[in-house]
Amino acid sequence: MRRLARLLPLVLLLGLIPPGPAAAQFPDAEHFRCYNVEGPAPSADQGFNRVSLNDQFETQRTKVLRPVLICNPVTKCRDGHRTPDPECEEVQNLADHLVCYRTADPPPLFATGPTGLQVQVENQFELAILGVPNRANLLCVPSEKCELVNGFCSQP
Question: How many CA atoms lie within 13 A of 151 on its CB side?
Fold first, then answer.
């Protein structure tokens, strides 16, 4: 559960679950910065390229395509501050990463466009009502990561 709490900010950012008062309950949740990646789609013989996804908006079967983002935990400081500083939120777990895959989804089951879903978010930046005009067609999964140096993993 603690690992999920650290991943909550990105999940909310990507609209994978509707935000609400729960976001404020995870003060030690990680912040993530995402980078574009290139790579092949998961192999069909691994059995994970077709999945069923069930969230608070809909349940859909989808095909997992190629990876498009890797998200690293990041220390975030208020403007003008540097780590270490009480105004900085340090990384709690360097091992927490996300890899986001493009998905081939059927049309959403919820109303899209200007009259679509609305959610209220509360986080350190704002309390706001946001429209959810459509689905991002991304699936982000917790992942282990190592940098390759001369073809071998180097941690972290």
Answer: 0
